[in-house]
Amino acid sequence: MSESVTSGGAGGMTVESAFAGMRSVTPVVFRAGCPDCREHCELAAGALRLAIGATSRTTFYSFTCPECGASVRKPAGERIVELLTGGGVRTLRLHSTV
Question: Would you call 57 helix, strand, or coil by DSSP?
Answer without folding.
Answer: helix
